[in-house]
Specification:
alpha+beta, 4 helices, globular
Length: about 120
């Protein structure tokens, strides 16, 4: 089952490119870039095993496997917007983010290293 995109691909890619091009993107562009990247991850790695949170901008579930039905899921990844965008663009590796404590990853399936970056 594919996800329903809320952000058009062109607008999402533009927001990600704008984030890469500036040190201080406006909040709307930052939110669009984060949400688009979350949608892209869910499209490329569909499922409900891992919940990826980038507060306050968005959350998605991804990766095939066992699903949860109530409460906090057992596999959760949480990070800030800049770290998330650095991960999806390849400016930061998963291992670096974990080593630098820039990402919180709980659960046995929460390693997103094989799914990132989304864009080189």
């Amino acid at each position: 089952m594919s996800i329903r995109r809320r952000i058009k691909v062109e607008a999402g890619r533009k927001a990600v490119n704008d984030w890469q091009a500036t040190d201080t993107p406006d909040r709307t562009a930052l939110a669009t870039a984060v949400r688009y990247a979350l949608e892209e991850l869910a499209t490329r790695a569909p499922g409900n095993t891992v919940e990826v949170r980038v507060p306050p901008f968005g959350v998605t579930q991804c990766i095939a496997g066992p699903t949860h039905t109530r409460g906090t899921p057992p596999n959760v990844v949480e990070t800030d917007a800049d770290t998330w965008l650095a991960l999806v663009t390849g400016a930061l590796t998963w291992a670096q983010a974990v080593d630098q404590a820039r990402v919180s990853a709980t659960g046995t399936r929460s390693d997103l290293g094989e799914h990132l970056p989304l864009w080189p």
